[in-house]
Amino acid sequence: MSSMLRSSALIVLTILTFGPFVAGQFTLRVGVDLVNVLFSVTDRNGRFVPGLGPEEFRVREEGHDQEIAYFAHENELPLTLALLIDTSPSVGPVFAEEQRTAIQFLETTLEPEDLALVIGFDRSVTLFQDFTENTGMLGRAIRSLEVGSGTSIFDAIMLASRDRLSDEAGRKAIILISDGEDTTSSVSRTEALVAAHQSDAVIYSISNVLPRRNGPRTGDIRTLERLSEETGGTVYELDNNARFEEIFSRISEELRSQYSLAYFSTNPEHDGEYRKIEIIPADRNYRVRARQGYYAPIESSDEQPVETDPER
């Protein structure tokens, strides 16, 4: 199914609902007033918890309870992936392994209705393969990547989020492979995060910096942590026990264990402000990982969101 056809269509799903809804089909519309949240649930041992229903969660926005309108498990929503690969000189020692395992990840993760794209970035940002379900084409794009100069992480996230993922429906995730040190982007980290929030994408970051025997790691792990934590994703680091293959396996497991919910905010203002959200499980032994908030819609398409700091 092409990206254009899928993103323009309404997604009809079978889900569990409650309250004024009944079990059966619902139509998920992509609209500015609907707040979509992807999240995963783990137990005290870090194992993903499947099979939960909407009655087992409470949603709050800026401290106010919200009513869950839609709820689905991961296998009820198609997955759209954006694979962003840093090709700056710092990736040299791990580049071949990075390419091989990224291809393997796509081949084992994508289902028939899923789509993925490949973006390579150094000083410039290039879309090497647009959305496709063809893993052969995605693999050829990854193998064609070459090491360049500079690192434009935020520009790559902006391209993936604003220009490609924003019009897609279903579950959306960005797999970012980089050392985290942006040197040449034309947009800021805040602008990139705003775009990711507006596209409803979760960012999974992989630091491709190898551990050093003496001294701290190079790169900027804090940037990767900020990008992932605020959007509900996870950041991974290479070490002697976790190579690319293991990390990709963990991400694939989480993508297969996700939940999706949506609600209509009780705050009617279209002011572009950042709003904090919280998903609270009924079972206190469970831990929910989800994005920390979202940017409210704005009245005019010519306006830009207010770039407030979510960590305020």
Helix content percent band = 10-25%
Work out the radius of gyration. Answer: 19 Å
**CATH structural architecture of the largest domain:** 3-Layer(aba) Sandwich
Structural class comes to alpha/beta
CATH superfamily label of the largest domain: von Willebrand factor, type A domain
Mean pLDDT: 85
Beginning-to-end CA distance, first to last residue: 42 Å
Side-by-side strand order of the widest sheet: 9-8-7-10-11-12
Taken in chain order, the helices and strands follow as HEEEEEEEHEEHHEHEHEHEEEE
Report the total helices. 7
Strand content: 25-35%
How many extended strands?
A: 16
CATH fold assignment of the largest domain: Rossmann fold
CATH class of the largest domain: Alpha Beta
Poorly predicted ranges: 7-31
| Count of the domains | 2
Q: What form results from the Cα inertia axes?
A: globular
Biggest sheet features: 6 strands, mixed
Q: How would you describe this structure to a colleague?
A:
This protein folds into 2 domains: 3-74 and 258-295, no CATH class; 79-255, von Willebrand factor, type A domain (Rossmann fold, 3-Layer(aba) Sandwich). 25% of the residues lie in helices and 30% in strands. The chain contains 7 helices and 16 strands. It has helices at 3-8, 95-109, 135-143, 153-165, 189-199, 221-231, 244-255; strands at residues 11-15, 24-28, 34-42, 57-61, 64-66, 68-73, 79-86, 115-121, 125-132, 171-178, 202-207, 235-237, 259-264, 274-281, 287-290, 293-295. The strands form 4 sheets. The protein has a 6-stranded mixed sheet with strand order 9-8-7-10-11-12, with helices on both faces. A 4-stranded antiparallel sheet has the order 6-13-3-15. The radius of gyration is 19 Å and the shape is globular. It starts with a helix and ends in a 17-residue tail after the last strand.
